[in-house]
């Protein structure tokens, strides 16, 4: 792949540098690592390293540790363990040296400055991973997966990112691209060698092949909603009139007292958000100020406005109703308003005698998704959690088999490829071979951007700038 990339991107100059960065998080730690990648990694570190055994670093076997000191003008900067990993069996496919220092910011900075002074260049964010991509070790989906693994919020989202790192999405997309490319080659041959009586593939055959490609893209897209939720998290907003127990429910779902709860209506004046895991999905839960028809005063007005904003932005609403009181007009209005969105009605305070007319709630919002809960007595909360997760998916997902699109960029490119293939399908029998080739090429190009075969410098910049410096 590296070769193909060089055709449209001049990366040679960039790859000649040796880059260096502190790869561990800032602050104090047991150890801290300064990492170098590039052809001069070993000589640069050798120039500042004095091994205990007296052996030069250049002589060290690949993937071994050497013990010694980093020294500057005869002065010991730190006691270190140095790992030498020689190309190509490394993260970047280049020579990599990692200096394991004592994990304080001062020694790390000094060691970094020293290797920079000896000729290394400070790496840009994500540049190590970018090199792994440019050197053809991983495709772009795998580079993105590295970022997803680092930032994943639940084990499940981490598992899906790991599957992506192992090439699940890349392979699926490459498979589709290969078939598209083969079809394109057949049609092109019939144009180029028309005089030699190579006839274009039969229409029926082309139609079938296009439909099959569209089917494959469709099945990738069909799991994207779920995948995006898994990566980005599900936005849930807890809404209802004042004092029904929204903040209590919010705290109960979080498992700690995050929001203030009192018996005074109007206690919550702002939106409070936290992320919790439910059924493997990262869920961003928002507790909101109680919605009243005629808010009084600036604070209440602003609070209600923010509640509506959270309401609009949410993927899912949990409408809380106080079960110990009869339904009010405000309740009915809020339940009615929530009908246009995915929502669950939680009838709270079910530890107290039930006064609310549940049939009326069901009548307004439909039968499904009405749950009895008690935030204080912890009743029905597991059911609420699984209902929230259940709005993203039902049942178990077989992670072993499926490629799951978790990334908006991939989804957009799939949509573009799909549109181009649909145009090709529509044009069959009407438009000429040249038009068909044009559409197929466009589909191929969109698919290419996913794995990085046709990714522009802009796309790369967007992706890798989101990494931290030492990754
Ligand atoms: N008995 C009972 N009281 C509750 C329950 N949930 C909340 N409360 C009480 O209802 C009052 C208002 O709760 P709060 O969470 O502040 O409501 P919010 O205004 O909707 O956020 C407080 O006195 C809570 O202790 C519940 O499940 N059972
Ligand atoms: Mg509250």
Describe the 3D structure.
The longest helix is centred in the middle third of the chain and has 25 residues, at 168-192. The protein is of the alpha/beta class and 471 residues long. It is 46% helix and 17% strand. The chain is flat and about 80 Å long. It has a 7-stranded mixed beta sheet. Helix 13 links the parallel strand 11 and strand 12. The chain has 18 helices and 13 strands. Helix 8 runs antiparallel to helix 9 (203-222) and helix 9 (203-222) runs antiparallel to helix 16 (408-427). The protein has 3 domains: 2-138, Gyrase A, domain 2 (2-Layer Sandwich); 146-223 and 403-451, Four Helix Bundle (Hemerythrin (Met), subunit A), CATH 1.20.120.430; 235-390, P-loop containing nucleotide triphosphate hydrolases (Rossmann fold, 3-Layer(aba) Sandwich). It has helices spanning 2-8, 12-16, 41-46, 105-117, 127-134, 140-151, 155-165, 168-192, 203-222, 224-232, 246-254, 297-313, 329-337, 358-365, 381-390, 408-427, 433-451, 457-464; strands spanning 19-22, 31-37, 49-51, 64-72, 75-85, 96-102, 121-122, 234-239, 272-278, 281-287, 316-322, 343-348, 370-372. Magnesium ion binds at residues 246-247, 259, 267-268. Guanosine-5'-diphosphate (GDP) is lined by residues 240, 242-248, 261-263, 267-268, 290, 348-349, 351-352, 374-376.
């Amino acid at each position: 792949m590296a070769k193909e990339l060089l055709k449209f991107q001049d990366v040679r100059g960039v790859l000649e540098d040796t880059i260096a960065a502190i790869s561990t998080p800032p602050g104090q730690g047991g150890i801290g690592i300064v990492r170098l990648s590039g052809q001069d990694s070993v000589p640069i570190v050798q120039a500042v390293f004095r091994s205990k055994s007296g052996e030069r670093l250049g002589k060290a076997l690949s993937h071994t540790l050497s013990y010694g000191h980093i020294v500057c003008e005869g002065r010991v900067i730190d006691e270190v363990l140095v790992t030498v990993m020689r190309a190509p069996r490394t993260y970047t496919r280049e020579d990599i040296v990692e200096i394991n220092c004592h994990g304080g910011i001062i020694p790390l900075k000094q060691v970094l400055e020293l290797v920079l002074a000896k000729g290394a260049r400070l790496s840009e964010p994500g540049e190590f991973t970018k090199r792994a991509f440019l050197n053809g070790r991983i495709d772009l989906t795998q580079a993105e997966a590295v970022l997803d693994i680092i930032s994943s919020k639940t084990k499940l989202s981490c598992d899906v990112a790991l599957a992506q790192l192992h090439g699940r999405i890349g392979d699926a997309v490459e498979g589709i691209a290969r078939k598209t490319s083969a079809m394109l080659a057949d049609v092109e041959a019939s144009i180029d060698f028309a005089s030699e009586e190579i006839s274009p593939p039969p229409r029926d055959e082309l139609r079938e092949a296009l439909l099959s490609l569209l089917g494959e893209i469709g099945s990738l897209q069909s799991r994207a909603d779920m995948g995006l939720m898994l990566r980005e998290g599900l936005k849930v907003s807890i809404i209802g009139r004042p004092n029904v127990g929204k903040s209590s429910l919010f705290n109960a779902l979080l498992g700690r007292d995050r929001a203030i709860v009192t018996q005074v209506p109007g206690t919550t004046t702002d939106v409070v958000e936290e992320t919790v895991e439910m059924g493997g999905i990262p869920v961003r839960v928002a507790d909101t100020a109680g919605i009243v028809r005629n808010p009084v005063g600036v604070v209440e007005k602003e609070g209600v406005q923010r509640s509506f904003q959270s309401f609009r932005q949410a993927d899912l609403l949990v409408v809380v109703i106080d079960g110990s009181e009869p339904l009010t007009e405000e309740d009915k209005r809020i339940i009615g308003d929530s009908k246009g969105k995915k929502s669950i009605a939680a009838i709270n305070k079910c530890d107290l005698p039930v006064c609310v007319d549940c049939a009326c709630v069901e009548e307004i919002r439909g039968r499904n998704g009405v749950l009895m809960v008690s935030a204080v007595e912890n009743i029905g909360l597991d059911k609420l959690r699984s209902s929230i997760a259940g709005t993203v998916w039902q049942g178990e997902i077989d992670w072993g088999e499926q490629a799951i699109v978790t990334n908006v960029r991939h989804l957009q490119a799939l949509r573009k490829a799909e549109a181009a293939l649909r145009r090709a399908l529509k044009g069959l029998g009407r438009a000429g071979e040249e038009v068909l080739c044009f559409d197929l090429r466009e589909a191929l190009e969109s698919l290419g951007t996913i794995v990085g075969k046709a990714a522009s410098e802009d796309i790369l910049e967007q992706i890798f700038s989101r990494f931290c410096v030492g990754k």
